[in-house]
Amino acid sequence: MRQLLINTPTGEISYYPLGDAPTSIPYSLIVDVTPEINDVLAQGGPFTWLPDDLENPTGKGSLVKVSHTLEEQKAAKVAEIKDARKVAEHAGVEVTPFGLLPTDAEAQFKLTAIYFKAMNDPTYTKNWKVGDTTWATLDAATIIAIGDAVEAHVQAQFDKERTLSEQVTNATTIEELEAIKW
User: Fold this and answer.
1) What whole-number distance in Å separates Cα of residue 39 and Cα of residue 69?
2) Which of the pair, 5 or 152, is modelled with greater confidence?
3) What is the mean pLDDT of the chain?
4) Could you give the number of structural domains in the chain?
5) Largest alpha-carbon pair distance within the chain?
6) Last residue of a domain, which of 41, 65, 89?
7) pTM
8) How far apart are CA 118 and CA 125, in angstroms?
9) Could you tell me which of 94, 88, 92 has the C-alpha nearest to residue 103?
10) Rounded CA gap, 81 and 157, in Å?
């Protein structure tokens, strides 16, 4: 049976004509293509999934055709890109030898404070928790290196958001807009 894979946070819909939608994707819903859904698909996209129960968006619902102007869809795409940037920004950054370090807003704030202290005092050290259970004593040079890595990671996400947002601005068709992905 043909299937749709619906990413419930973003509303992105993928079509699996052979019924082989992957079952291991978080925050997703697999829907068999019923005759009613097939009728909607025949109209051409874009589509969205409208859950029957907004409290449980992974439950039953309906596939509906969305008719928006290009400008409305551009605004939605810019918001989608912004959300994707936040997720990527806060996903962490690999720093040797510590592994994945958090880059959420709180971690960035704390790191900024000790970064400035380390910049002004080359003898500065700080006990820092890396991971869930590991402690390290960081010297000023290491703090600066970590801060630079986090800054580069965060800036790369903003650079990507800007590039994609400019592509959105320059898009002249719905098809061009739909091709823009994080």
Assistant:
1) 22
2) 152
3) 88
4) 2
5) 71
6) 65
7) 0.63
8) 8
9) 92
10) 10
